[in-house]
Amino acid sequence: MSELDVRFSPATAQDTGSYRLLELPPELCQLIQSASENSPGLSIKGHPTEDAVLCTSEKTYAVRSVTLSNTVLVVTPSRSDPDGTIHIRDQLHEVLELVPVVPKLHKLSVLLRDMEYDEGDEDRQATMPKYSYEQARGEIQASDTEFFRGLKDRRILVLDGQLRPIAPAHLSTILELLLNYLISLSLSHQAASIEELISALADEHEIPRAVSNQVISWFGDVNEGLWKMDIDAVIRELGVGILRHHRHNPISENEFLKKWRNVVGDTFESSVKLTLLSGNYLQNVSLTGEEATLTYFPSSALPFDPPARFVELFLTRQRWKHEEIEPFLLGIAVNSKERDKLLLKHARALTDSEGVWYTARVSYN
Fold first, then answer.
1. Do the Cβ atoms of 272 and 239 come closer than 8 Å?
2. What pLDDT score was predicted for residue 291?
3. Most buried one in 47, 126, 184, 327, CB count within 10 A?
4. Is the pLDDT of residue 124 over 80?
5. How far is residue 339's CA from residue 332's CA, in Å, rounded to a whole number?
6. How far is Cα 90 from Cα 20, in angstroms, rounded to an integer?
7. Sign of the CA dihedral 354, 356, 361, 365?
8. 120-159 as b/e, with b when 16 or more CB fall inside 10 Å?
9. Residues 163-180: what's their mean pLDDT?
10. Interhelix angle for 168-184 vs 209-218, to 10°?
């Protein structure tokens, strides 16, 4: 084995603190290796007040510092004697670890406040605050795939390059009209002509084509000018639209289901089922045998930070069954394993004759 002289670099003072050691998970190693000559599309996102994240085209990773028990030396060959001498450029005491995390799309609701798109609001556009698609894409800590999916899930339109969340009531109106036109125009919900639908909405209800086009794309597959409607997605949105009026005044379950079936019409009433609204309501069961009632309780309105979310959940109810609390944890964990970890950390499991219940680990009263 050849011997090498190890010396401190003449530029050690300038180099100190300039290097970071990044540990790549297997899927990122594979992504970089498969990219060959093309860029793997990695980016670091975050404001100075935020913890940085690393984004690929499809996933978001938190960047965490892990202290090393041994010092790692960063060395390079000497320019004057590359075969016999190496120079120490820096000494590292930590490694940066990448951990998959949920994209931080919750910020959109704050950034887009007062920018809602509603029927007949064209006159307000000149004085309305603006937040562009490209600006949000660069600032929101999410991969491009997650960002695009987040706009769809949060019902955010892109109009003239600006982001505009659509008013829930207006969205429900458009969906009801689409269901009506499927019947009146004798169109199949599995292959409906998009041009016929958006033309009818534009001509008879003055709904801009750019709006109806995006709404249609949110609720099904678009291929060669035909729309295959996602029945469950449309039925769910209309159900949430009805439930939204009952945040403070609970509605009986049977009355709610009757209204829901009436809105979706005879063709799709068989698709109405309460499980579609999971994560959007609380079911209140009377101990006296009276009919159960429903209260609007959307998971999207809960805090994004896990500790704060559990505080809110246990202030709302002192104990939860697993199937009840799970839908309200979907947006804060990347998978079921991480959700179970959060439950172990913030809740205590108790078992009685009715099964397993979760209660708060600490008292919030």
1. yes
2. 87
3. 327
4. no
5. 8
6. 10
7. negative
8. eeeeeeeeeeeeebeebeeebbbbeebbeebbeebbbbee
9. 97
10. 80
Q: What is the mean pLDDT of residues 216-236?
A: 97
Q: Which residues contact residue 240 at a Cβ distance below 8 angstroms, ignoring those fewer than 6 apart?
A: 168, 277, 280, 298
Residue linked to tokens 């490209």:
134
How confident is the model over 55-86, as pLDDT tens digits?
A: 999 999 999 999 988 888 888 888 777 777 88
> Could you tell me if 173 and 167 are in contact, meaning their C-beta atoms sit under 8 angstroms apart?
no
Residues 84-108, buried b or exposed e (16+ Cβ, 10 A)? eebbebbebeeebbbeebbbbbbbb
Phi/psi of residue 70, each to 5°? -120, 150
d(CA 330, CA 280) in angstroms, rounded, equals: 12
